[in-house]
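May I ask for an example protein's residues together with how it folds?

___
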Amino acid sequence: MKEGQDNILSASSPRMGNRFTRWLGRLVLRSMGWQMVGKLPAEKKLIIVGMPHTSNWDFILAMACLQSVGLKVSFMMKREAFVWPLSTLFRYLGGVPIDRSAQGNVTSQMVNWFDRNENVWLGLTPEGTRSKVSEYKKGYLRISKAAGVPIALIGIDARSKEVVLHEKKCEYTGANNDEDNAAIKSFVDANFFGINPENQ
């Protein structure tokens, strides 16, 4: 399935952009030599987990993919960054202001955000850094379980220059975040290959 094809998304996927931004996203993808394969779940609320995050190029690649199909994926940002006039741009792109001074409260803030919105997808990179990590941060699992929102995996495979979309959603309801987290990391390490593999 090539980039920009409408059947990557469903009627329930949150949208943004227009014909020009989709054309621009496809142009950037083609110039980089990448394509998207697969399909995303038909869900009104979803947590998109993108891995492995090993390079600054990951952000450019992700934005090109989103723009190419007109998909809106929200992301968390420090509340302090939402200062006019940039606040309008950040919100349009999907930025969600987070008060990080409230220790341990990020999960509840995101649960409230999901409750307030009918059709939103949240994107996260659980490594929390481009450097090599032995385990992922588990915030994405805490948010998923507390909000009752499924997870979908998007993997970067630099060997084939493919961004792989997984239609099968992951629903974790158990209490053992360590086991769930380790299982996801093992799957990613076995199936995907970062742009800078030494950081994976």
In short: Residues 6-194 form one domain. The two ends are 26 Å apart (CA to CA). The longest strand covers residues 45-51.
